[in-house]
Amino acid sequence: MENKDIILGSAYLAPVSYFAALYSCSKAYIERYDHYMKQTYRNRCVIASADRPLALTIPVEKLSEGKCAMKDIRVSEHGNWRHVHRNAFVAAYKQSPFFDYYADEFNAFFDRKYVFLYDFNMELTHWMCRQIDIQPELVPTTEYMDAKEGILDLREAIHPKKNVEDSLSFFHPVPYYQVFDSRHGFQPDLSIADLLFNMGPESLLVLRDAVSF
Prior knowledge:
Radius of gyration: 16 Å
Mean pLDDT: 93
Strand content: 5-15%
Number of helices: 8
Number of domains: 1
Shape: globular
Strand order of the largest sheet: 5-2-1-6
Distance between the termini: 6 Å
Number of strands: 6
């Protein structure tokens, strides 16, 4: 799928497989008009904590009856979540090789109050791409994008409840150093933050090796 255009859903610090897709494409359409659904990567990322994989969820404003487009989902201030998430990242990655290098810029995302979840996700995705040194063209959709020939639709393929190796034929997780791997073994396809904080500039090599054509 190298240099193929793709469609992806919006995701909060998406898993490694999502960024492997970005590594491999030239243009990625990031869907704004799909119906928001709970228990997806739209507002959830999974990191490696000392005890187990930990899901961090961004609360959103209560939805009115009926379906709501992703572009209209507003971030809630419920539960002091920014403080909770930032502390979770520190606890999980303060001993990782590269956390201190990225921490100031990364933490700044949790100091600013974003109105819309899509905007928060997109800015984090852009930032992660810059740190890893991949340059896909990220294009917000202007209407719901129907699947088209020549464009790989991955909107439903990358999902917390799916086995990524079954749903993505091109992606095969490559083990890399993780802080707690001596305790739990390698945990595949965690948030891209896990890869960046543990591997730094070598994240690019991990993505390269995880993709097969």
